C-alpha cells in the first residue's frame, strides 16, 4: 500500500513517537519504526524506556572527546574519522538516527551545554559538524545536527524566547547549520526548545520552510527536541516532521480534527509523513534486531580512535623556560629550554584529584557509559619504562566538590618540595556540577580551593605544569606563575593517555582554541544580560559575539580566538590573492615535526577604510566586526619543511544579509585579507578589490555604539535600530502563569499547591547537588519544563485540556482546576481508545 492511501489518522500517527526513543511506523504501508539515540560524542543506547537524560543504564560505548574539545583540532578530517567510528557503533547497537552533533554558537562561556557545542564562530562549527556528519552517515544511518536554532542558555530552555535581529541570526547563528546542511547533507535535523522572535522553533515556518528547506535545499526529516513540540498542527504546517518522545495519541487527534475542520491540509500531513518514511527507508539496514554489545575488537579500535582525536585537540596554552630558582621565566629570559615536553630522567609529583579520578565528559543526555576508563596518574606511571619520566608521588591536593581543605594543600606542597621532584604536575579544572545540560554555570572561575592549590605549588620554586580539565573557558588567576599549561578540555575515555603522550613529547600539541578566553567574565559582551531570567532572552549584543566583539571593541583577552602553541615554531610568508582564493607559504622552523592552523580573516570595506587615516571608515559600508574568520587549514609539517597553502573563497567569504532586500549581498569595494595562526597574530595582509552586487553605503549613524562594537553601552534606541522590523519584546514576569511558563516560575504562584511543588523541587535539586556533587538532571528538567510539555512526554496520559486545568491550579484556582482535570482525564482516555481502535483496524 502506498503512503498516500493510508487514512489521515494512520499518517498522523507517524508524525509522533511510539515510545521514548522509537518512531511509529505503519505495518500497512510497510514502513518500519526506527530508533533514535543520543550521541554527539558517544552512543547512549538506553536499556529501558522513560529516561532521556542519561541517568539510567545504557549499553557500553566509546566516549569520544566532546564537541567543544574536538573543535580545538580545527580538523574536519579528524572529526570525520571520529564520526565513522561513532556511526559504526550506532549501527552495531541498532540505532538508526544518532542525535548529534550539537553546533549552536557559544554566545557566552557560562552556557552549561557549551561542552557539547563546537565554537563561537559559524565557519569552524559548520565545517567540524560537516566532517562528523559525513563520518556518521557513511555507515548507512542518519546524523541529526541540533539544536536548530538560536539556542544559547539552559535556564528556562524549554520556555525561553530568543529575541534576535535577522542579520545576526542569519550570519552568526544559522551559518554553521547552513554549512553542515550544504556540505554534508544530514538526513535529519533537530529543532531547539526555545521560541525565536515569539515562534517556537519546531513550528517556525521562517526557520523550517523559508530558510532550511527553500533556501538551503534540505529535504530530510525535522524532529523536535524531546518535549520541544508546542502545537502538532502548527508544526506540520511549518515543516516539523516528527514530534518526540511519544505524546500518546493526543497529537493524532489534534491533527485529525484540524484536517476535518480545514485548519490543516492533508497535503501537509502527506509531506511530513513522507519525510518520516524516508528516514525509515534510508536507515532500514540498521534494524536487524541485534541486542549484543560492541565487540572487543571494535571497542579496542575505537578507543584508539578516541585517543587519536584527543591528541589532535590538545591546546598548549603556555610553555616557558624555568629560571634559576625553578619558577617560570619572565619575558625575554628564554635561554633555557621550555619545561615541556618532559625529558627522560624527569621526576614528577602528580597532584590533583582529577589526575586519579578523571573527568572526561559533561553531564546530561550526552553522557556515555564508556567502555574504558583511564587516568593520568596511572598512564604516566605505566609509561615510565617507555618515556624515562617517573612519578615520585601523588597527592589529592583539593576536595572534588570545592570544600576548603588546607591539609590537602599542605600535603601537596610537602610532596612538591621533596628533593626527588623536578617538576610539579597539577591537574585541575571544573567538576561535574559545573557543566551540564539543564544548568548554566554561575561563574567562570574554577573552585577557589584549586586556585589556592596552584598558587601554593607555584611558591615551591619548581616548574609547575598545569593540565586543565574543562569544557569551556575559565579564569586563570595563577597563569603568570606557572611554567606551562596544557588544555585538554573534556577529552573522552582515552584522554589520559593522550595527555601523557603530549606531556612527554610523543605527540606535539597542535590544537588551537575555537573560542576566545576572556581575562574575566565581566569582559564578555553579554555578561550584563546573560542568562535571561525572564521569558525573553534578548541578543542585544547583535553580531558582536566572541572575537567579533573583543577584536572590534579592543578588549584585552587571556587567549585570542584561534590561539595555540606548539613544540615547533612556524612562519608565514608570501600572501597572494586571486579571484578564487589566497595562497601563502608556511614553514616549520624547528627541529621537530608539528602542525599549525592557518586562518583566513576578512575585513569589509568599512573596517578596511577605518585603518586608512584619510577616510572616515565608519561611513563606508554596512556594520561589521573588525574581522571575521572565513577559512582555515590544518597543516602538518616535518621539521624545516615548507608548504604552499591555499584557502579558497566560497559563498560565505564576502556576503552579508541585507535585511531590507531580504537577501544575501556582497559589497563592492576594497576589503582586507589577513592570514595567521590566531585572531590577533595575523602577520600576512593584503588589500583585495571585490566586485560585489551592491555598492558600499554608509552605515546608519543611529547605530551609535554598535559602530565601534561597544555593545555594553548601546542604548535601547540604538538596539531598536539594530533589530529593525523584528522589534524587541519586553522582559518580565507574567501576572498569571501560562502553559508555556516553566514550573520554576510557580515558586511565586498565588496557589499554595503550585508554590509548594515548585519550592520543593528547587530545594530537592539543591540538596542532591550538594550531596552527590552532580546536578539532579531530572528535577532540573521538570523545573525548566513548561506545563504544555506534560502533554508531550506522558505517552497520552495527559492532554492539552488537562494541562489547562493544571495551569489553573498553578494560578490559585485550585477547585476549578481539579474539577477540570478530573473531567478532562476521562474524556482523554475515551478519545485515546477510539484512535487506538482505528489504528489497529478493530
From TrEMBL:
UniProt source species: Bifidobacterium ramosum
GO MF annotations in UniProt: beta-glucosidase activity
Key words, A-Z: Carbohydrate metabolism, Glycosidase, Hydrolase
Any GO BP: glucan catabolic process
Annotated ranges, domain Fibronectin type III-like: 596-679
Presence of keyword Zinc: no
SUPFAM superfamilies the record matches: (Trans)glycosidases, Beta-D-glucan exohydrolase, C-terminal domain
SMART domains: Fn3_like
InterPro entries: Cellulose_deg_GH3, Fn3-like, GH, Glyco_hydro_3_AS, Glyco_hydro_3_C, Glyco_hydro_3_C_sf, Glyco_hydro_3_N, Glyco_hydro_3_N_sf
Family named by the database record: Belongs to the glycosyl hydrolase 3 family.
Matching PANTHER family: BETA-GLUCOSIDASE
UniProt-listed Gene3D superfamilies: Glycoside hydrolase family 3 C-terminal domain, Glycoside hydrolase, family 3, N-terminal domain, Immunoglobulins
Keyword match Oxidoreductase: no
Domain of life per record: Bacteria
Name assigned to this protein: Glycosyl hydrolase
Amino acid at each position: 500500500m502506498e503512503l498516500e492511501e493510508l487514512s489521515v489518522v494512520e499518517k498522523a500517527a507517524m508524525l509522533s513517537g511510539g515510545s521514548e526513543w522509537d518512531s511509529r511506523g505503519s505495518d500497512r504501508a510497510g514502513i518500519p519504526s526506527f530508533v533514535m539515540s543520543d550521541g554527539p560524542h558517544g552512543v547512549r543506547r538506553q536499556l529501558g524506556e522513560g529516561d532521556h537524560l542519561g541517568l539510567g543504564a545504557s549499553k557500553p560505548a566509546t566516549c569520544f572527546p566532546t564537541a567543544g574539545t574536538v573543535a580545538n583540532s580545527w580538523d574536519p578530517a579528524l572529526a570525520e574519522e571520529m564520526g565513522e567510528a561513532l556511526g559504526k557503533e550506532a549501527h552495531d547497537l541498532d540505532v538508526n538516527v544518532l542525535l548529534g552533533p550539537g553546533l549552536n554558537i557559544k554566545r557566552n562561556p557560562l552556557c552549561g551545554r557549551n561542552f557539547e557545542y563546537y565554537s563561537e564562530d559559524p565557519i569552524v562549527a559548520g565545517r567540524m559538524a560537516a566532517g562528523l556528519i559525513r563520518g556518521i552517515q557513511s555507515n548507512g544511518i542518519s546524523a541529526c545536527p541540533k539544536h536548530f536554532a538560536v539556542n544559547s542558555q539552559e535556564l528556562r530552555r524549554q520556555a525561553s524566547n530568543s529575541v534576535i535581529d535577522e542579520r545576526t541570526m542569519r550570519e552568526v547563528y544559522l551559518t554553521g547549520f547552513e554549512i553542515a546542511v550544504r556540505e554534508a547533507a544530514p538526513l535529519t535535523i533537530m529543532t531547539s526548545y526555545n521560541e525565536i522572535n515569539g515562534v517556537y522553533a519546531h513550528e517556525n515556518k521562517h526557520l523550517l520552510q523559508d530558510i532550511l528547506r527553500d533556501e538551503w535545499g534540505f529535504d530530510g526529516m525535522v524532529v523536535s527536541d524531546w518535549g520541544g513540540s508546542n502545537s502538532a498542527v502548527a508544526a506540520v504546517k511549518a515543516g516539523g516532521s516528527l514530534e518526540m518522545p511519544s505524546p500518546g495519541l493526543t497529537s493524532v487527534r489534534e491533527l485529525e480534527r484540524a484536517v476535518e475542520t480545514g485548519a490543516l491540509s492533508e497535503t501537509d500531513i502527506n509531506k511530513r509523513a513522507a519525510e518520516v518514511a524516508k528516514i525509515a527507508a534510508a536507515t532500514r539496514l540498521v534494524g536487524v534486531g541485534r541486542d549484543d554489545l560492541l565487540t572487543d575488537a571494535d571497542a579496542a579500535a575505537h578507543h584508539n580512535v578516541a585517543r587519536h582525536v584527543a591528541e589532535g585537540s590538545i591546546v598548549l596554552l603556555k610553555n616557558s623556560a624555568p629560571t634559576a630558582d625553578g619558577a617560570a621565566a619572565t619575558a625575554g629570559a628564554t635561554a633555557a629550554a621550555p619545561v615541556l615536553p618532559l625529558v627522560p630522567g624527569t621526576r614528577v609529583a602528580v597532584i590533583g584529584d582529577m589526575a586519579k579520578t578523571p573527568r572526561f565528559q559533561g553531564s546530561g543526555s550526552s553522557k556515555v557509559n564508556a567502555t574504558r576508563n583511564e587516568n593520568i596518574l596511572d598512564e604516566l606511571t605505566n609509561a615510565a619504562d617507555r618515556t624515562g619520566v617517573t612519578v615520585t608521588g601523588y597527592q589529592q591536593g583539593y576536595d572534588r566538590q570545592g570544600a576548603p581543605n588546607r591539609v590537602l594543600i599542605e600535603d601537596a606542597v610537602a610532596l612538591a618540595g621533596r628533593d626527588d621532584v623536578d617538576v610539579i604536575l597539577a591537574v585541575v579544572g571544573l567538576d561535574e556540577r559545573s557543566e551540564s545540560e539543564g544548568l548554566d554555570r554561575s561563574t567562570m572561575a574554577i573552585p577557589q580551593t584549586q586556585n589556592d592549590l596552584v598558587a601554593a605549588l607555584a611558591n615551591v620554586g619548581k616548574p609547575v605544569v598545569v593540565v586543565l580539565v574543562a569544557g569551556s573557558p575559565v579564569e586563570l588567576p595563577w597563569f603568570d606563575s606557572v611554567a606551562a599549561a596544557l588544555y585538554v578540555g573534556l577529552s573522552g575515555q582515552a584522554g589520559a593517555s593522550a595527555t601523557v603522550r603530549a606531556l612527554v613529547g610523543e605527540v606535539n600539541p597542535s590544537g588551537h582554541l575555537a573560542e576566545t578566553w576572556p581575562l574575566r567574565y565581566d569582559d564578555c559582551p553579554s555578561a550584563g544580560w546573560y542568562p535571561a531570567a525572564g521569558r525573553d532572552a534578548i541578543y542585544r549584543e547583535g553580531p558582536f559575539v566572541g572575537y567579533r566583539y573583543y577584536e572590534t571593541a579592543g578588549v584585552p583577552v587571556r587567549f585570542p580566538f584561534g590561539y595555540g602553541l606548539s613544540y615547533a615554531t612556524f612562519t608565514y610568508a608570501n600572501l597572494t590573492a586571486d579571484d578564487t582564493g589566497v595562497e601563502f607559504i608556511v614553514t616549520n622552523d624547528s627541529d621537530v615535526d608539528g602542525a599549525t592552523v592557518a586562518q583566513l580573516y576578512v575585513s569589509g570595506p568599512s573596517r578596511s577604510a577605518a585603518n586608512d587615516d584619510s577616510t572616515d571608515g565608519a561611513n563606508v559600508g554596512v556594520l561589521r566586526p573588525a574581522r571575521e574568520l572565513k577559512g582555515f587549514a590544518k597543516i602538518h609539517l616535518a621539521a624545516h619543511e615548507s608548504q604552499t597553502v591555499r584557502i579558497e573563497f566560497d559563498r560565505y567569504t564576502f556576503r552579508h544579509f541585507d535585511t531590507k532586500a531580504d537577501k544575501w549581498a556582497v559589497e563592492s569595494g576594497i576589503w582586507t585579507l589577513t592570514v595567521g595562526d590566531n585572531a590577533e597574530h595575523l602577520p600576512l595582509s593584503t588589500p583585495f578589490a571585490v566586485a560585489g552586487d551592491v555598492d558600499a553605503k554608509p552605515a546608519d549613524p543611529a547605530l551609535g555604539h554598535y559602530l565601534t562594537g561597544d555593545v555594553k553601552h548601546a542604548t535601547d534606541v540604538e538596539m531598536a535600530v539594530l533589530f529593525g522590523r523584528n522589534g524587541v519584546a519586553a522582559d518580565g514576569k507574567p501576572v498569571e502563569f501560562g502553559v508555556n511558563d516553566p514550573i520554576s516560575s510557580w515558586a511565586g504562584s498565588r496557589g499554595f499547591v503550585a508554590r509548594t511543588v515548585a519550592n520543593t523541587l528547587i530545594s530537592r535539586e539543591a540538596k542532591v547537588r550538594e550531596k552527590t556533587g552532580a546536578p539532579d538532571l531530572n528535577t532540573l528538567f521538570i523545573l525548566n519544563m513548561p506545563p504544555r510539555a506534560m502533554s508531550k512526554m506522558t505517552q497520552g496520559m495527559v492532554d492539552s485540556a488537562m494541562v489547562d486545568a493544571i495551569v489553573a491550579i498553578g494560578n490559585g484556582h485550585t477547585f476549578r482546576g481539579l474539577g477540570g482535570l478530573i473531567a478532562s482525564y476521562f474524556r482523554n482516555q475515551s478519545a485515546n481508545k477510539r484512535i487506538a481502535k482505528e489504528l489497529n483496524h478493530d
